[in-house]
Design brief:
alpha/beta; 13 helices; globular; binds alpha-D-galactopyranose
Length: 418
């Protein structure tokens, strides 16, 4: 009952604020209102490469239970995802219960014992993540951390939590709009201070906990989140399991590449690979591009019922290696020609990855497309590995590239450094 009524409250009470937050179109040009930079950042001991794992929201939404988390942890091991690099098993919204008389957050009936669940996930050699909000309630209307930040951080550390997604939600109406009506600059300062507060509370626990900011890209978080110890920050509103949304979010990442690096990453939201009705080409392109973007790779699908072709995409080690490359350089969109986008990612040791994405629909003729190596600063001919076929191929300047609608050519050119 608690779940149903809370979701209802969320929909009715917070919809306006959250949806306006999520449709805000963040860009490098968004006016910035944050004041002085928060104090010195804590040492970056986590997220030296983009976090990899799984999160409950994109498939289970508010229905997730303790069992779903255990099953997912089991599957991460048995499917080979763990071997491919997936580590974090993240519980999103709707685990929260009431606070006890001392203000300590409790779980609700879907999660009988969080410490036992964390122990179980750890016993698999994995790490566990949790979710909260700086506001009084979460997006789904459950208990948030407002006024209990230190206490909650301590509870998370006692449970053995390794990752916190901190979602703005009710902080907008309850604090920002209430305390600073009609003063956007003051509202943004309140928001930054709220994230700074939780970052400090987590740091004070002494436990390494990844801090994931979820405030939909408001006020260019890429400019201030690293300084307060944020390890990743959402750059946009929520992803959805269809190509148009995936492609819109992808396009919004162009220009943000200079803000990503070891310990601090742009987050274009969790993966929808295997969700909804995306074609195999769309799933492949989505995964390829998130890897090119050095994005966190948090799968969000139903792992116990994952189809073999989806598992193959999520565990492609060559593609994952682009994402996890230790240089931590996010790809740039170098040029577009019609509906074909060409992205370039620099890799450690002087290597490079090229992605050629046909964003056109079936009805639009985009072919023949000719790849300009020159525009990428590459002299052809050059040998490259096709990361989806595994074949070696030679790239020549102005070579024709035939791609189905929403499909991708993803190749890696080896570096010269030994
Ligand atoms: C917001 C976030 C989502 C998810 C939900 C949970 O919409 O952006 O990723 O965490 O809240 O309520």
């Amino acid at each position: 009952m608690r779940v149903a009524s809370s979701l209802c409250i969320a929909v009715l009470g917070l919809a306006a604020a959250v949806s306006s937050a999520q449709t805000a179109s963040p860009s490098a040009k968004t006016p910035r209102h944050h004041a002085a930079k928060p104090q010195s950042a804590p040492p970056q001991v986590v997220a030296q490469t983009p976090p990899m794992g799984w999160n409950s929201w994109n498939y289970f939404f508010g229905k997730v239970t303790d069992k779903d988390i255990r099953d997912s942890a089991d599957q991460i091991v048995s499917t080979g995802m763990k071997d491919a690099g997936y580590v974090y098993v993240n519980i999103d919204d709707t685990w929260e219960g009431e606070r006890d008389k001392n203000g300590v957050i409790q779980t609700n009936g879907k999660f009988p014992d969080m410490k036992a669940l964390a122990d179980y996930v750890h016993s698999k050699g994995l790490k566990i993540g949790i979710y909260s909000s700086p506001g009084p309630t979460t997006c789904a209307g459950f208990e948030g951390s407002l006024g209990h930040e230190e206490q909650d951080a301590k509870t998370y550390a006692e449970w053995g939590i390794d990752y916190l997604k901190y979602d703005l939600c009710s902080f907008i109406p309850a604090v920002m709009q209430k305390q600073a009506p009609n003063d956007e600059a003051a509202q943004m300062r309140l928001m930054v201070a709220a994230y700074d507060k939780m970052a400090k509370a987590l740091k004070a626990t002494g436990r390494p906990i990844v801090l994931s900011l979820c405030q939909y890209g408001w006020d260019s978080p890429w400019e201030w989140a690293p300084a307060l110890g944020g390890n990743l920050w959402r750059t946009t509103g929520d992803i959805e399991p269809h190509w148009d949304r995936v492609y819109t979010i992808l396009s919004q990442q162009a220009g943000l590449e200079k803000y990503a690096g070891p310990g601090h990453w742009n987050d274009p939201d969790m993966l929808e690979v295997g969700n909804g009705k995306m074609s195999i080409e769309e799933n492949r392109s989505h995964f390829s591009m998130w890897a090119m973007l050095s994005a966190p790779l948090l799968a969000g699908n139903d792992l116990p019922h994952m189809k073999p072709e989806i598992k193959q995409i999520l565990t492609n080690k060559d593609v994952i290696a682009l994402d996890q490359d230790k240089l931590g350089k996010q790809a740039s969109r170098v040029y577009s020609d019609g509906e074909v986008d060409v992205w370039l990612k620099h890799l450690s040791g002087g290597g490079k990855a090229i992605a050629v994405l046909n964003a056109g629909s079936d009805r639009v003729a985009t072919h023949p497309f000719h790849l300009s190596l020159k525009k990428l600063g590459i002299t052809g001919p050059v040998k490259a590995k096709d990361l989806w076929t595994g074949q070696e191929r030679e790239l020549k300047d102005n070579m024709a590239v035939e791609l189905k609608s929403h499909d991708i050519l993803l190749v890696r050119i080896a570096g010269t450094a030994k």
